[in-house]
Structures are given as C-alpha cells and as structure tokens.
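Notes from the pairing session

We agreed to fold both candidates in a single pass and log them together. This is the raw record for the first candidate, unedited. Please don't reformat it; downstream parsing expects exactly this layout.

Candidate A
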Amino acid sequence: MAPVAAALAAIGRRVAWVFVGSAAQRAAAILLGMPPDAAPAPPKESFAGALIAIAHADEGTLALAAAMATSGARILRVDAGARAFVDDRASRELDRRADFLLCATSLQRDNLRRDGIDVRRTLLAGCGLAAAAQRLISKRESRVVALLLHGKQDRDALRQAISLVAAARGLRVFDCGDLADLVGATAVVTDCDDAATFACALGAPCTTVAWQTARPETVACGANRIAGDEPRAVARALEIALDARGPFASPYVGGLTAESLRTLLAMPSVGTAAPELPSDGDFTGRTLGAEECESTARAIRSGTLNSTKGTFVATFEREFAAHIGSRHAIACSSGSAAVHAAIASLRLSAGDEVVTTPITDMGALACICYEGGVPVFADVDPRTMNVHADTIAAQLTDRTRAIIVTHLFGLVCEMEPILTLASARGIPVIEDCAQAFGATSSAGRAGSFGSIACFSLQQGKHMTTGEGGVVATDDADLARRMFLFVNKAWGYGDPAPDHYFPAPNARMTELQGAVALPQLRKLDWVIQNRRRVAAAITRLLLDVPGLRLPQDPDGGMHSWWKYAFFVDPRQIAGGAVALGARMKARGVFCAPRYVQKPAFECELFRDFDAHPVTRLPLEHNPRRSQAQPLFRRADYGGAVAALDSVIVLPIDELYEDRHVAIVCDVIRDEAKALSHG
C-alpha cells in the first residue's frame, strides 16, 4: 500500500486503514485514534468527512461499509477488482459499495467494468509489493532458483525435482526466508501469492506450487505457472518457465500521483450502489464449482481432449439419454449445431420448407438454409409466445417437410394438437428444448413428443458448458444420421468408413464433456430452485396492476429459463419499454421486448436473394415468384403484440429471498410511478 499511503500523505488526507476484517466499532476506534479495544463506539457523527481505506474484504469490512454508508464517511477501496473467482463475493460487494476504487492492474479495472461499476471512479494505483520490488531489482545475476514455501508439501521431493532442473542449466537452488531473498533470482518456486507478485515485478519467472492463485494477473501476463503440488509437475513447469523466450510485461503498473488521487477524492459521493443480483454470465449465478474443476482437471491430466478417443463425452451422452428417457443422445458443439444435426438428419431436398417460430435464436434458422431448406414462420400465441397448431396449419404447404416447435422460456407448447396435425400430414416434429430442460405439460415432458429433441448448453442455459448442445431421439436411423453429421459424416466403427455426405466437425470436446457431467447431475436441483424463485416473484407481484405474470401450464410445470411477464400500456405508461428502462436504471437488468424484432425482419431474411445460402433453396420453391420480403409484420399480429408487451427478467437458481425482494420492490415501485391510475 506504499504508493497509496504516500499519495494520501502528500495531499494531507487523514485516513483510517483497515487491512483485515474488522467490526464497525473496531474501525471507528482506529479512526478516532483510540485503542482497538476502547469502550463504547463513537456516535455516527464522528465519522462525518472521514475516509476509510479498506484493503481486504470479508463480512467484517462489509459491515463497516454498511455502517459508513449512513454516517458521512467515504470508502476508499484499495486493490479493487481483484478476482480469483474463489469466494469473491465479499470483494465484489465491497467494490460496489465503495466511493472510490484503486486498482493494482488494468485487469482489475476490466473486472469492475464487467461488473457494471463506474470505472470513472477508479485509478490505476499499482501495487505496493511491485513498487518495492522495482526499487530492489539487482543488476547482479545470482544464477539461483529461489525456493520459498510455507505449506505442508513434501519439501524434500520437491527440492530434489527442482534441483535436477536447476543443475541441468547451471543453477543452484536457494531456500528463502522472506521476499527480499527473491531479489536477483533467475526463477522462483513458491506457494505464496505475495511471492508470485514480487517475482513478477522483479522479472523472474515464477512456478506456483498450488492449484490456484489469488493473483491471476501474474498468470495472464506469462510470469507465473500454476503447477499443483506434484514434484514432477512442478519440475516440468519450472523447465517451461526457464525455457520461455522473451520477457513478460508486469501488469503492476499505475499512474497514481498525489494530484490524480486528489482529483479522484474530490468527486461527489456515489450514493447507494445499485443492487448486485446473481448473473448467469458469471459465477454469481452459475452452479459451476469444485466438481467441474475436478472433472476438467482429470480430463486434462488424461491427455485426451478429443471425444472420439476420450470417455467424458460418451459417458455424458449415456447419462443424458437416461435422464430424459431417450434411447439415443448425441453431444455436439453448440445448440445451433444440435438443430442443424436434426435438420440434416431429415435429408431435405432443395426448396423443402420447415415451419418454425419467428421468436427464436438465429442458430435455429440459418441451419435450415444451409441444408437447402426454406424457413417458413408461423405466428405465436401472444399470451405464451409459443407457436400453436392453428398458426402452424396456416403455413403448411405440399413442400413442408418438418415442423420446429420452440418451448420458449421453459413453457411447453400445446403439443397434442400440433402432433395430431403433423401426424395427419406425415411431417416430423423437432422440439427445440434449449430453454426447457425439465419442463412438462399434462401431455408429457419437453423433448418426449417429437421425432428429435434439441438442447443447448450455452452459458445462460439451465446447465452449461459455455457452448455445447445435445440432440436426442428414439429413432436409430435418425440417431445414426445425426451422429454422422456431428462427425464430418465419417463412419466411425463402420467396416469401410467413408465421408458419406457434406457435414462439418461439430463434436463436443472432452473438456466440455467433463463440465457437462457434473452439470447434468445438478440439473434437477437447478430446475427446482428456479421454480422456487419464480413462485416467489409471482407471489410478490400478483397484485400489481398492469402486469400479466407467467404461469405453469395446466397439469404441468414451467422450468423457468427466464421469467417473462407482460405489461399493459393502458395501465402503465410507456408499457414494457418504459418500465424496463426504469428497472435497468435501478440496477435490475431485464430485456424489454426480449428481441427487438421478429426473426423474419432480420437482414438475412428481408431479402433471400442477397446471399447464396438463402437464395439457392428458394430457386427450387414456388415462393420464388413472390416479391421480397417473403414474410411481413402485418401477418404476425401475435408475435408483434407479444414482443411489444413482454419484459424478460433473468433469474437463476442462486437467487435468494433478498434478491427476489429487491427485484420485486423495484418492479412494484416503478410500475406504480408509471401507473395511469
């Protein structure tokens, strides 16, 4: 903290430093110059105008920040934006509550930006350890590997393995007692995060004897290699570090000066920070944890990352099929690839039509064109945003070869009349279940109705591998065709394999499979908790005029990918767009309208002739004689009305009662403020 302390001293600013967790009373005593154990806590007015510098985040310092928020003191957060993604919740919360933020690296400032924090209130302050290292750098080359260990590793075995590597390069191993001993070292081996930072600033490559680090910046810049604690792995990492070519740039650089700090502290208070809600975009709202880390580490240690030779993807496919009650499941690289595999399995002829919804992801539409088909859009029910039998029937022609139904947001379509319609025409039904893991209706479970079911494992879905997908079917011939499509149409296991038809490489990797397995085993818990969250939201908003809330289908259960509710502009001025804007201004992210326009209004469908992928299928279809665009807003009243009135609220399984209360209070307040009544 030396650079910060020096800058504060230069501007004559009195500050209370809190380096470790403290209760508010203890911090108040320090602020007033009393011993930490002094009796009674001073009154709130004693904090007026004070500056509290906090360099460590835990429950105690969060309590302190909460006390300061109403006392007139201001929080200077040192080392803001530090993220190891292991129990970082207190750090993130403290960053949000602070008035001013000092970051040690640009990566830390990027973390703050990603968390939605105003980075205009930040300064790159550098790092005290790094600054000290810069002052101590010796020009003398000591030709040693510095060994600084505090843990309970097998020190003798580690030292022996390290010594062999060092000796091969004419280096000796030196056991260090403190950070100063690292100065001049050729390389550093340590289990200490501070030592890794110090080595990075010294320009000495570091090997960390641990499975993780609190200083990911040192890894990102190439200065630090995380080796675990197995001696051979540590020795190998040290070899790689010593053989690396070119210097690395220390991330610990900052432009902190007394004047820049004075300017920062002159800014007005931030007021109450916007609430931080769990997000499926990061660990706050994702059930990714130790199980996925362990499983992925096993995949990496196996050395086999390709699913054609590995075991994780094959195991996941078997378990997924069993979980949903299907005979066959084929994993692939994305949800888009899953729908593409399904379409490819139907062997379309050029110009064949596939009826689908105008409210869906483009990955479920472009693949139709790539397989020579023409997407045809059926309108949706404005109350559910799902296609239904009547709107599908209106689009059927003698060229229709498939129907895709999308169970939007986790609500199952009314499948019985759709299946009756399709069966009478001999048309296969593909279910897009990307948002509907575990959803049910009175007729059955999403994924059990059609010829093929498609699932997505994208970042925000019920279970995730970042990107990934699965197709499932009971039909062995369709399963075979989809397996071939995912594998470049190469007949793995065939007596005389060949590439049978044009197909990409859409395989899932073993790394994805290693994440998918523990995610699958949590899936029921995830769905159960999302149902709990949705029920709580509905309970708290049920009496708000002008809102129409989503419900479970008769005889079934919604699976709540998102909570999509509708706003009546006759009762709430400005409707969904105005209410959504006010929600976002208060820190409750949402998506008014969900998507800004129906899919047929996207550029690639406004003119099918503009690209060969869309033009060529149409040349073999009677619609070729129609003027562009083929599909017009006036014919899709349900989709237009639904998009105009919907607000999509992201929820996830890690929402707690307090998060639900925050969200519902904001919606209730802002709906009332816009109410015509």
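Candidate B (folded immediately after A)
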Amino acid sequence: MTVPTLVVGVGMGGIRVVQTLAEFVKDKGEVGDYRFIAIDSSKKDLQDRIKSGYNIIPVGITEEGFDVEDMISKCQYLYEGAGGKGVGALRDRVYGRFLLDLNMSKVGEAVDASLKDLKEKWKKERGEKEAQIMIWLVHTLGGGTGSGTFPSLVVNVHKLAKEILEDKDIKPYIFCVGVLPSATNIKDITHANFDKRYLANSYSALRELELLANAKNITLTQFNPYGSNPEIEIMERPFNRYFLFGIDEDMVRRLKDEEAEAVDEYLTSSNKIIANMMYALPNYPEGLENLWRDVKSPFIAFGESELLVPIEEIKRVAKENDRLGKTVEEEIKKKLKGELDLVVNSSIGELNEGFLEDKCKAILNNHKLRGLSYFIGKSQNEFNKKATKAQTDFEDGVGDVWDELEREEWAKDKIETSEGLSIGDKYEKIVDMLEDRIRDIEKTISSWISEKLHPILRRMLNNEKGKHNKTLNELSEKKDILDKLKLLKSHIDSNLCKSLRVEIGHEEDGVSEVTTHIRKLEVELEKQYKKLSEEGGDRVVKLGIPEEKANDLTMIEKGINVANVESVPDFIKTFNIKDDAVEKLIKNRVEQADDISIRVGIVAKEKEEKEAPSKELFILCHKDNEATLGKHEKAFTGWEKERIITETFDRGKYVFVDFRLGLHLEDIKEYKYRNEEYEDGTLAKTTGLKEDIGRIFAYPEWFMDDENVKGVFKKIIQ
C-alpha cells in the first residue's frame, strides 16, 4: 500500500463498489490502509449491502427526522410540486441533492473523522515521506441519489480535504468514478427495455460534470435545514481525475427477466473491474503527483481484463486426488479381493463390528477413498450372499426337522395343530417340542422303573435323546450364525465406517451412504478437472491445463506434484506450457482490456475524426509473477504500460487495466447522442418527461439560460 485511501460510495451503485473493494483489500491484508463510507438514501439497502468488519461507515441520507414538506417548501432549488418520496430519491436527481443537504452534517462528520484518522495513520507510519492521501468518490450517473448528490458531495469533500490535510502539508488527491448507464443500441434508445430516465439523468449529470471540470466562479447553493443557506464559490476543479465506466442496462433488464442470478454476476463482475482499477492507482510506483501529469483533460475511460492461473484450484484438485486415491484398476482390485477373502472366510466368532471397522481403516490408509468404496461395496455383496446362505441353511434345517417330526407319533398331533407358522415360530416350536421330549426321555430313564427297562430300549431312548440334542445344537448353530450375520449385515448397511467420519468427511454411515458420498466427490472432482482446462471468456480467461493431466495432480505421490507451485512461473514450468501459448493469452487479455465495447457507451472518437485519446495499460501482479511479463514484451507492442507490483496481490492472477486518457465529454457517444436529442426535443418524448424535461438537472442554478430549466425551476428564478 503506497497511499492511505478514503473511498466514498454514494447511491446503490456506489455502495456496491465500496463493499467489493473493501472485500478485495481485506483479502490482501490491506484493509487497515483504507477507510470506507457508504452513503445511500435507503437504510435497507445499506443494511443489505454493507457488511461489518471492513472499516465501512454507513450513512443514511433519508427523510427520517425531518418535517419534509416544510423543508421542501423552504428549499430554494427544488421544482414546484416536489413532494416527499418516503424512501430514496426514485431517480429524481434534484431530490437526491436535497436529501444530501438535509443530512450533510452526518456526511461531513464521517468524512472528517475518516480523513483525520488517515492523517494520523500517515504521520505514525510514513514519517517524513512526502505525504499523500487518496480520496475516491464512486457513484452512478443514471439514478437519483448517486448522480444528484455527486456535485455537492465532491465540492464539500474537496473543501474538507483542503482544511484537514493541506494545512498539515498532506496532499489530497480526489479521484472519482462514474458508472454510466447505456443502451445496447447507443444511438437509438427508442426500443431500450429499461427506464429511459436513466439515460436522461446521465446526460444532465455529464453536463453538470462538464461545468465542474472547467470550474470558473461557479456558485453552489446549499440548503441548510437548521439555518441560513450557505453558498460555496467553486474557483477550481474539485477533483483531480474522473473515470467513466459503462453498464449495459439493456443486458441487466433482459437478465432480470430471464435469470436474476445472472444480473448479480454481471454487476459483480463490473464492480470487480472498478475495484481493480481503484486498487491499481494508489500503488502507482512514481507517486500520484506524477500520474498523467501532462494530460490536461480529467476524463478517463477504462476497461479491464484478467488472466488467471489456477494455482489454488490445482492444489485443491491435487489434495482431492490424494484423498480419493487412484482409480481402482485390476491390480488394486486383486489386492482388495484378497483382503476381502480374509474377512469373509474368517470364523464367525472373529467377526464383529470392531473387526470390520479396523479393516476399513486399514483399507482407507492404504488405498484411499476409492479403494475403500470398492472394498465396502464388495464386502456388502459378499456378506449379503453369506447372510442369504445362512438364512437358507436355517430355513432348510427347520423345514427338514419339521417334516421329520411330522412323522413321529409323539409329535404328529402338535405339528398338525401348528400349521401356518413362520420359520421363526416353527424353530421356537421345534425347540420346545424337542426339549420337552428330551425331558420326558430323561425322566423315563431316571425313573425307578428304568432298572426294569430292557437294555435295547434304554439304548434306543439314549440314541433318541442324543439325536434330539444334536438337532437342537445344529439348529442353534445355524440360528447363531444367521443372527450374527444379520447383525453384521445391518452394521454394514447402516453403520459401517462410523469410526471414519472425519477421514471420509461425511455425516451418514453405511455402505450406501459412504459410497454415494464418495461417488459425489468423484463427480465433483471430474467437474473440477474440466474447470482447470476451461479458458473462460469476457473479462476473465484462465491459463489452464489439459484435462487429462488433472488426474495426475498430487501433493504427496508420484505424478504431477504441485506442492511447490506458488507462482505463475512455477505453474508454467511444472506443466511445461509453451511460451507462445502464454504470450497468446497475454495478448488476448490486452486486446480485451482495450475493447471499447466492454464500456458500452463510453466510446472514443472514431478513427476518421481528428486526434484519438492516448492510452496506457496498467498491469497488476505479484512480484513473483513479474518475470513472466518480461518474456512477452511483444504482447504489449504499441502500449504505454506500467507495472503495478505488490507482494499482496494474488499470485495466480494478472490484471490488465486499460486507460483512455485525455477524453472530452463530446468524445463520448452517449453524451453526443443524448445532447442532440435534448436539443431537438426527442429526449423529452422518449423519456416521457415532455415539458418537465428540465427536472433532470439537479443544479438548475448552473443552467439558467436553458428554457427547459427555467420552465420547471421557477422558485430559483424568483
């Protein structure tokens, strides 16, 4: 961080950029060098958009706490018939100005506190170094709050900055960003599918901006709700530079109709373009005092593109590869089959839940998740077979004994009266019958009459008793095996790998849940493979790797080890990416940043017209990535370029910010076409404002020669 920076965003578009930049610098560990103020006429938008923990001061400029109708009647610059809005400015620029004036004391306090804070920070950390503080004002030009408040806000911020900083020999630099709404068809907005008031507002905002840029004895009249109305003489331009960026409102409207998430993605991308540009300038190595010193016009248009090298992504994939393990080929299957045979063929006494869990843990350690998935799937199949066989053996055993007993005289009646029993009930009946029969035999043998039993009969009774005991033992053993296998099968189906939840990364247990989870991981990993190879488009392009190489990424094993890949040069070397491929992508990114269409309505002079604005390219990157740029100078042929090198910037990214310097508002086609329409009355008809077209001006005192303005703002004439 070179320069302590205050960022003030006003209106919905402005506060979105504030939040984006705050997140951007916090990610780089630099949020302490920034102070942020978010100003909006909707408290709800401030609550929804602004997050805590980013040094952002939210300031609501609302009607709350004021007798609005009384204030409106006293305000000298509002048009006749103006009334309270309830919430926001509702695309009414002069009302946005009015809301700022009502709350100017709150805004001034926030700016004052932030500038003093940054001043003390500079004194404490920078010592005797030449003192500079950068101030950004960000707003949109088409709405009511952002565009209506900007002229008054920048004048007051400029005044405060001079008072607070310059007396301490700290040079303030005030840079501004205006987000210009534009139609896809710049010239003919008749069929634009969004509120055309945005375009009328942006035209009047640019007119006011033009006056500020060439300020000579302009007077800004402020409305003070607490006393006399002060006037500020504007003797000089209140800002150093003004950056223009365009938004395709046709696209936003279309996406809103089709897919709301795409709108947010488009606006987020636009905010990132702006944030990258704003981050670059305070890091300008020659100091802000030398930034475009000889360029007289303050207006600058900019575009931006990014070249990404997926360092973090390849490491995530490598870690997931290592966690999942290699695809289970035949050799591994053979090993796992051997492990499974040992388990399946173990005696029923050795098998228990702990034994299975330990075996799964060993498999996971040796063969990772894919091996585990294969092993437990096969285990479930084998134990299903084993349990099915045990069930069959038990049922057959019970059935055979039942049939046999049906032929015994002593059991026949009991069997015949027990039809329709289940196998389990038959088993219990058999046990009861055989145990009763054994007791009867023992009773007969042990009775006093037994001495008179013939030895042959005694032997027959003992043989029968032995047979029944054997039958009971055989059935009991079959049932024990079946019960044990049922318990093991239940554990396998519902609880297997419960002891491995952390290692597997899941909450549900059992073969089906675990294998499904692992399959989901594999599917997600396959998607990541494709993402690594995709090059993307629009403002972001990725220097990817062939999809077939993604499977070989690793952090620990043999393959393409990416554990030490920390920068773009490391990435290029590891994957042996050819120089011409790198240069092609860099050139593509420079051309994309230079593509005027990305800025929609901000179009420089056509080639056949006289002098085109000069252009300069800023390249943001981490210091470790600078070497790669040096190898590809040909990609920057024809460009004045500046490298912005920081140790905190993302090591896997280059950002190319293209600036068009020396623009004049008449160079911008949006301004040129709207001006023609305003002059011939077309804009009034297209926007539906008709005789009220003058209302688009928020600072009517600057346009008292304009008949449209005089026709609307009668109070200020009086």
